[in-house]
Amino acid sequence: MPARTAGRGGALDERPFHAWLRTELTGPSRGLLGLGDDAAAVPTPPGLVAVLTTDALVEGTHFRADSPPDLVGAAAANVSLSDLAAKGARPVALLLALLAPPGTPRRWAEAVVRGADGAGRRAGAPLVGGDTKPSPTPTVVSFAMGWGRPDRLAPRTGARPGDILATTGTVGQGGLAAHRLRVAPKAGPRHRRALRDLLTVTPRVAEGMALVPHAHAMLDTSDGIADAVHLLAEASGCRILVEDRRLPYVAGLSAAARTAPGRRRIAFYGGDYELLAAIPASSLAAATRAVQEAGGRLTPVGQVVSGAGAGLQTAGRIVPLPSGGWRPFGARRTDLP
């Protein structure tokens, strides 16, 4: 049954849905005011600053009508949590705005909320508030807040010549999931698995907190590692060289594309949500150990040098690094998975 056809539970209605939220999501972790109030209130620890971020997932751009709603909610939360991870912040609270067409089944909205709250609670940021509004296009807007040290925020502007560029996890997971969805049959287990893979986002929160004491700069690879490298080079006013042979490509990439350019198109597509950090060479060993102790892995993939732009070292030469990356305002609907 399609995700938003009428069915058990009736259509979404704001007041009853908010009443369900107040009874479903309870406890002291929800803040000082509790769900359903005009705003949320969270105590601020001394000596720390609030790190804030927001994202939106839109049907037709980021997920499909037949995507599991609990995974849509979890992905909405996790993409914002990934931004907090990129600043080394400790997540503490999540808010969610749910925009849906009139007639949307309430059970779809409930599943989105449960998915988002579950993802937030796993990271230490339970759902503390939000909003619901009618909209022609289903959209889930997430807002996450965390605590960070003002002297340890690893801004994009901080990379310096001599730094080592390193990434957590693998490269190409999001692109491979999108590729598999494109080539999968329109129904069946391969299609369902590809839908789930495309919405599987693992925010590297523990790795971010472990990395931030050692990193000059850090950002997540939500739009792909190549796009992140270009953003980092531009923001920091330096040149970044990436070594193709050192990139930790996700398993299955070679089977999806036979040529190096084809593999890079998939690998640089976006949706990886790993952390990319510029780390002083003298701190690389300590940073690697810290990430390992946090349960992750860190792979050096390049270096920061003087100059501008980004290059890819491959086959003994340096070529311009393809920008790659997801462009929501530049993509045609027919290009979407």
Level-1 CATH class name of the largest domain: Alpha Beta
- Please provide the ordered H/E string of secondary-structure elements: HEHEHEEEHHHEHEHHEHEEE
Q: Stretches where pLDDT falls below 50 for ≥5 residues?
A: 1-8, 331-337
Rg from Cα: 21 Å
Outline the secondary-structure elements.
Blueprint: H1 14-24, E1 49-58, H2 69-86, E2 90-100, H3 106-122, E3 127-134, E4 139-148, E5 163-168, H4 173-183, H5 189-198, H6 205-211, E6 217-220, H7 225-236, E7 239-243, H8 253-256, H9 260-267, E8 275-280, H10 284-293, E9 298-305, E10 309-314, E11 317-320
Parallel strand pairs: 2-3, 7-10
Antiparallel strand pairs: 1-4, 2-4, 5-8, 5-9, 6-8, 7-9, 10-11
Helix pairs in contact: 2-3, 2-6, 4-5, 6-10
Written overview of the protein:
This protein has 337 residues and is α+β, with helices and mostly antiparallel strands. The protein is built from ten helices and eleven strands. The chain has a seven-stranded mixed β-sheet with strand order 6-8-5-9-7-10-11. A four-stranded mixed β-sheet has the order 1-4-2-3. Helix 3 links the parallel strand 2 (90-100) and strand 3. Helix 2 (69-86) runs parallel beside helix 3 (106-122) and helix 4 packs antiparallel against helix 5 (189-198). The longest helix has 18 residues, at 69-86. The radius of gyration is 21 Å and the shape is globular. The two termini are 20 Å apart. Mean pLDDT is 90; it is low at 1-8 and 331-337.
